[in-house]
Write a structure and sequence with these properties.
36% strand; alpha+beta; 9 strands; Immunoglobulin-like; nine-stranded mixed sheet
Length: 169
């Protein structure tokens, strides 16, 4: 005796549905295994070349609450004449000035100058300053602009500075 056609069709549908679930299960397992092995590779991949990361100033015994450099910005490209501007607390100055220098990537001084207060400096408030440094040594490459708190006492415990990376061309 042959089974009725609807029984055969019903069995075919059940087999098809069962295969569909098995296929979906196998697909999920395959995706899970792929993600397991690919995630560590993608998580530790280097940043793309299009991302830009700007350096921040480095403060030594100082903070942005003591001195702020308006120009140049970190990683800015400069020539042989470096114009510096910003503002510093009056306590950063001595006799309305403080030393500024540019050093190469090995620490050799390329040029130095004096930042001068543009307003009354005998205050604890911020006072604008400007400086112009002419590089005395021909150089191209990474460098560091260093602004030093004037310290007439000579005591190293009172030294403070802020440095920003720049590029000399």
């Amino acid at each position: 005796m042959r089974p009725a056609p609807y029984v055969i069709a019903n069995n075919i549908i059940k087999i098809f549905i069962m295969k569909k679930y098995i296929f979906a299960f196998l697909l999920l397992v395959l995706l899970g295994v792929g993600a397991y092995f690919l995630y560590p590779l993608l998580a530790h991949a280097p940043a793309s070349a299009t991302s830009t990361q700007t350096s921040a100033p480095t403060y030594v015994r100082a903070s942005a609450n003591d001195i702020a450099i308006a120009s140049p910005k970190p990683d800015e490209t400069l020539g042989s004449i470096v114009d510096v501007s910003g503002r510093a607390r009056g306590t950063w100055y001595f006799e309305a000035s403080f030393p500024v220098e540019v050093v190469d990537d090995k620490g050799a001084v390329l040029g130095q100058g004096i930042a001068t207060a543009q307003d009354e400096w005998m205050t604890e408030e911020f006072v604008p300053f400007t400086a112009t440094i002419t590089l005395t040594t021909p150089y191209t490459g990474p460098a560091t602009l260093i602004l030093k708190k004037d310290n007439p006492s000579g005591e190293s415990s009172r030294d403070a500075s802020v440095s920003i990376p720049v590029l000399i061309q």
